[in-house]
Every structure is written in structure tokens, then in C-alpha cells.
Amino acid sequence: MSTSTLNPAARRVNDFAIKIATVNGTGSASANTLLMKSIFRSGIPVMGKNYFPSNIQGLPTWYEIRVTKDGYVARSGRVDIMVAMNAETYARDVKEVAPGGYLVYDSTWPRPALLKREDITVIGVPLARLCNESFNGVRTRILMKNICYAGVLAALLDLDLDLIRKLLAETYAKKPQLVDSNMKAIQLGYDYAKANFTCPLPLRVEKLDKTANHILIDGNTAAALGCVFAGATVAAWYPITPSTSLMDAYKSFADRMRVDPATGRKNFAFIQAEDELAAIGMVIGANWNGARAFTATSGPGISLMNEFLGLAYYAEVPAVIFDIQRVGPSTGMPTRTQQCDVMACAYASHGDTRHVCLYPANPEECFYMAVQAFDLAERLQTPVLVLSDLDIGMNDWMCRDLKWDDSYRPDRGKVLDKEAVMKLEKFHRFIDKDGDGIPYRTLPGTHPKGAYFARGSGHSQYGTYTEDSTEYQIVLDRLVKKWDTARKLVPRAVIDATAGSDIGIVSIGSCEGAIREAMDILKAHDVGVDYMRVRSFPFSEDVERFLAAHKLLFVVEQNRDAQFRSLLTLESSVEKSKLRSLLHYNGMPISSSFIVDGVLAEISPRGIARPKDAAAG
Amino acid sequence: MTFIAKPKIAHPSLPKNALGLTRREYEGALSTLCAGCGHDSITAAITEACWELSLEPQNVVKLSGIGCSSKTTAYFVSGGHGFNSVHGRMPSIAMGANAANRNLHYIGVSGDGDTLSIGLGQFCHAIRRNLNMLYIIENNGVYGLTKGQFSASADIGTKAKKGETNFQPPIDPVLLAMTLGATFVARSFSGDKRQLVPLIQAGLRHKGFALIDVLSPCVTFNDHEGSTKSYAYTREHYEPAVHADFVPLEREIVADYQEGETLPVVMHDGSRIVLRKLEAGYDPTNRVVAATHIQERMKAGEYLTGLLYVEESETEFHDINATPDAPLNSLPFEALTPGSKGLEKVLARYR
Q1: Domains parsed from chain B with CATH numbers
Q2: Is the ipTM value over 0.90, yes or no?
Q3: How many other β-carbons are positioned within 10 Å of the β-carbon of residue A350?
């Protein structure tokens, strides 16, 4: 048992985790979504994480559902109920169940070996037999077997069958015959469980009212929505997991909300590029020409985009890039999560370059930061990278309703129109007129007087080609000034110093949920910690203050090499010896227990008993 | 200062185009290429073509990658924006820019290294999208800025300045473009302005991707004995197959063409190209016949030139994408954002 699970008995109702092991391509996703949504509709906060293979059919896949009355959004690091539907992974799945937990499996083929563990309860349901007797066709039987386990869980956990029926009716509104067949499978599992086991289990759900004004949404969908609302008109991309669903979502929203009903014309251009090099080139070309344009990619794509990112930095062209980080290096594990592009994005490209990066923590922030990214990119005339990750991007998160302020108008930055150009004696592209390091630009087609030549080669502040040292340096130095301006415009860090502690946790992005829960658990151990979540690079001015105010700082991040810690030491004056890294990089989303264990090990190595089997998620 | 502005001294008697502008107003900065470089002749031809067509200078967008050829976009139409991007990636910049504003004239200038080696992929895909632009390759078979390496268009048997012989087969942009479905494919020679200017005009008026591969000798690294891309060799081996006269909408055809020899092609804006076949058996409107003919002559060591293939296409990128007539970059924000009511509707699906 992990140190984070102090009182198992108190955690039974509306507080447990289910893990479902299946084979991918067998329709288990529908069953899992159904379960998760029915819990959410019962007013109980819920977390869902999908651990899927880089494969279309036949490999092991898991889905974790955490029922959490306290609204925690991360993994706890503990599994209370395992639904083992994949014989290939039985052995490891059985091992993962926490003592006192439950194992549900398909007893059509009895597995006495499973019963080796005496500290868990094994629930065998002959799912295949039940479905073979009731359904025809191999494919249908396989699909229904998975819906059937949802029925079993409905009985064991005391889920509302009417709610499930309603959800099915919504999902299959256009195929009503599927509602009946799915409901039949649910009922089969439900009735079998009711007849053969004591239902519900001590682990069960009880209706609450904690999900009002909340939605279940993944970060890629939310980011795509942000792009639509921010007025992005050009989307160029090359397919890569786990970013593809962002572009798919943008297209589907735009196809619905951006088509002129009278003419059928589309107020957006959606371009599937030949590779990531072309995708970023198109984004730069479109932004240079005055459209809000963006791309989404992942690590390998970022590597390919490096040369162009340097051009956009130096030629001062806006661009918005979503990097949905996945496990590296190289191809790595494309369907697993990490925060491993922190350094690659901050300094992407050769030469002296620094890029504005935003670090959203959840889908809600993906939505707002998408809008902010366009404003920053156009205001600063530079690429802005939004570093989400697979965990945020592809998992459904419970978050507050997204809000849109109708008074919002995009910040298009310093763009001179024809009238403004005509008033000038002469237009010079790179002169720092306002002292903020940001020059004025014009768009093609404005007026011959406003024409300039964008280039990645050495240029003077007048926009002309140069190989003159002084002229070159004037531009380079002004870019530093622009960076200082960026520091004032980027989102500030989120700081929680209510503990008033000497100890702080510093982190970025999707570690947020696990850290918030870990702080609660630590508090229960009488360990108060402050917390700062950095939301941008360059670091906002409050970052330096927080770092200076704490004696010991745990830097929590999801990569092996402590990239964020490196960035902190490079870009702030923090004393290196104060920083302790807690690095989670196995590809699974970070859990609260991992952080609790890491902090306690450092501050009181002998103070807390740490059993050998502590699940470090 | 390494930038040389061209002195703007205009003679009052210089002829003016329909916009009241002289040729000087279609020029750019002073060329820094070697004296006698074929590229400078092409720059002059582009200048002439834009002036004759009376294009609004600010509506000309000049795009390039890296290399000697890519520098030349600074040398014409200084009243239009230019973007000198990264090596081999000009087509993607052009695609993005064109997506943002479909109503400007996009002129891409590239070289044989920029297009056929590092940029081969982007070149091919721009053709597949039928991106509405004029794409000029200033083809000299050699890397100039890095001093004389063979490019992918170097012919088998051609000799480098230092004596090395090339044994790898060339990639021919004309044949490649025809295979990929290009709708306007031409080849010309920098030394033949009479042929080149109308080709550029027709290319600018063509709806879709217009390719002109211009043989443009490098006087410094590839103009020696034994080179198949020298001035002397090109003059001897280039063979005009089809002469194209560009006839703008507003002008009547006055030339006296013999029936049967000429073929007028009406372009999407109503202007015409009048093709005059100089070779028996050549058909510039039949992709297969034209490609076969070009290959046969190539085997005999000759480059056919002129407007080798043309098809007034109906669908360029924007037609396929169904974008509105107004440029995307001009749409008001209100037309782009669904607002708070729109968001509420969307969120209903996530409850």
C-alpha cells in the first residue's frame, strides 16, 4: 500500500479506481466511455485515462476510471477493481490490484491460477458464453462481450440503468437498433451479477451533485475549439499521434460553424501537408500574409520544424504550434505521455533563438491558451508553442464549463494598413519605434510604399540585406528587448502559498492534478508545501520571487533529464542546490502517490514507514 | 552596406503601362549576381512581363528559397512584398500565403538545387494541389553559391569546371511536372527574351500551378567546354517546339497566323494564349503525346522549349477547398467566431 492511501476503509463510496484491460479494436472504448459518462451524469467527479497501443487491432489496451468524490483529476496510483478481459495480460493485471480489491474476469474459460492471490476477491462472469447464447455473428459477439462487462459493473457499483439507457439513446440517436442490442448486453451482465454476487460491492457509487457546470472533454478538442473561436482561418498539419485529433476536431467544428449557409463556402482552409516541414512553412506563409494560422504536431514534428521556427523567429513572423508531447526519444512510445519537449521547444532551431512557450495543465487551459497563443504570436510577431501532452490531449478530463467573452477582439498586433503607411515618410520593417522591441509590419497587397522583403538572412533594421556587423547586431539586440516585453505579456504562474512553507513544489502542465492531490495528502501528514505552476516561457516575473522565497524546491516533471529544471537554472537566478527533481517518465500519467512518496523520502527519510510494495505509479 | 539600392532616375519619355507606371517601377534592388548570369536576364523578363500586364506592384508577391536564383526576387517589383525563406521550402510558404489571400499574384523563383534536390517533395506537392502560382526554375545544373557542385539537373556526361564527370541521370522538372498532373508546363532559355516574356505573362494569368523551367547558364561555374548547361551548348541544343503569344483580354489578336498552325487557348480570365507549333506532330494540349515527344527529343540531346503543355484547369486549391471569393485574411472576426451562444451549444455534447 502506498503512503497516499492512508485509510482504505474510508475510501469506498465514490472513491476508488477501476482499470479495464482489453484488446484494442474490440469496441471496448464504447463500453468505457459509457461507464465513465454514467458516473459523471450521476453527479460524481470522475477521471478517465486511456492507455492504448500504437496499433489498430489486437494489442493490449487499458482504460482507467477513477471515481473521485473530491474531484481529483490525476491517477492515485492504485487500482481497486480490475476488469481483466485480455488473457494475454492476466498475469500483470492480477498483480496490479490493491489488497482488498476485486478482479472481474471472463469465467467462460476458468482460470484457477488467478485465484493465487488471497487478498483480493475474484468475480468470474461467463461473458463470452452469455453473449454467444444471445447474439449472432463473431464480430457482434466480441463487441457485446465488452458492453456486457459494463452491465456487470453497473450491478456491482450500483449504477443507474435508466441513465445508461439514456446515454445509449444519445450515442446511437441515428441507429436505434443499436440501443436495443447494447442494452440487451448490459442487462445480461447486470442480471448475472445480481443473481450470483452480493450487489453492490462496498466500493460503489452514490449520486452526488458535483458535476453541474462541468464538462468531460479532452485537451485536443478544447484546443481546437479555442482555434475556431480565436478566428484561426488556416490550419496546416501532417498526421502524427497524439496531435491528430486536434486537427480532426478543428475540421469538424469548422465544418459546422464556419460554413456560409448561403453559399456553402468555407471560411477556413484546411491543408494536409506532405510533412511537418511543409506544415510549419504553410503556417508561416499564412501568418506572414495576415491570416491566423496554426499547426499541431508532436516531438518528431517539432524536430522537423526546427529550421522554419528559426526563420519565423528571425524574420519575425507570427505562428502558433501545438506540441502534444509523447514519449521520446526518436519514435519513442507514440501513445504514451511525457513532457519531454520542454528544451526542444524553448530553444528550437540553430543560432540564438528563444521561443514563447505556454504550458496548459488541462483541457480548460488548452482552450484559453489557444486564444492567448494567437494574441501573443501576433502581438510579438514570433512563434508561440503550446506544450500540451498526450495525457491532456487525448484523455477526457472533467473541467469547468468553458466560457466565451463576446467582447473579446483579437489582438492583431502592430500591422500598418494602407492609410497608416501613406502617412509615413518611409516604412522600415524592423525599427523599434515604440521602445518595446516590437517593430511594425505590413501585409502583402497593402501599398508599394509598405512593401518589404522578409528574409532569414542577415538584415538591417531597415529590412535590407546586410553582412555588416553593427547592423546585424542592432537587430539581434532588439530581439532581446522583445523577449523582455514578452515576459510582461505571457500568462503569470499559478501560485499557492497558503501553506506558508519553506518547501515549494514547482511544476508545469499536466502534473497539476497529481500535485494538488499530493498536497492534500502531505497536509494530512503535517507536511505543508507551497506550489507554483509555471505557465509560460519566458518566465513571468513572479517566478523568480517564488524561487527565491523557498529553501527547498521540488521540481516535478515528466521526463528523464529534468528539462524544466534545466530551464529554470538557465533562465532564472535560482540556486541549483535548492532544487530536487521528481521525475516521472515511464509513459503513464504521473500519480499523486509518486509525488507524495518523493517528497516524503527527501524531507523525512526515516520518519515515515514506507512498505516495500509502495506503488510508485 | 551590403544592400545596393538601384538609383531611381526615370526618363520622362519612358513608356507607361495602363496604370501609368514605367518599367522602372517594376524593378528592384541592384543585382549582386555575377556579370552575365542568366538569372539577370530572367529578372529582366519578369520585370517586363509584370509591367506589360500592368499588375499592381503591391499585388505581386515574390517568394523564394535559398541559392543564387532565390536572391533574384529582390531584384524585381520592389513595390511588392518578398519572402526569401529557407532552402527548398518556398512552395509551403507560397501555399500558406496563398491560402490567406487568394487574390494576389504569387511568383516563386527557385533553382535546380532548391527545387530538384532539397525541395523536390514540396515542389511535387504544390503541383498536386494545383497551387495558383507562377513557379520559375532558374536551371543551371550547378550549385553556384557553394562553388560548382553538380545539381540534380546535371546531365549524364556533363563536366564540372574542375573536370569531374557526372554519371547520375538528371531529374527533369518538365517531365516530372507533367507526370504529376501540372496544368501549365513550359521550358525556355534565359537568352531568349522573345520566348520568355509571353510565357511569364501566360503563366501569371494561368489558373493553377504554372511551371517555367528556364535554362539559365552559370557563367562562373558551368559555362565551360564539356558542360551541357553552357550558353554555347544551350544555344545549339535548345529547340523551340511551340511559340506562345500571350494576348491579354483587352487586346485584339492582330498577328497573322496561318490556319491549322495556331491554337488559341482561352484562359480563365478571358485572355488568350495563341500557340504556334514549330514542330510537326507536337500537341501541347495532349499530355501523353507531349511528354513522349519531349522524351524522344531529349534522347537526341535536344531540349524542346516553349509552352509544352497547357490545360486551363477548373480547380485550383481554393476551388477544392471551397474558400470564399474574399481573401481569408480579410474576413471580419464576427464571421469567424461562433460567440458565447455557439459555445453553449457545443458544450452540450460534453455533459
Answers
A1: 23-347 (3.40.50.970)
A2: yes
A3: 9
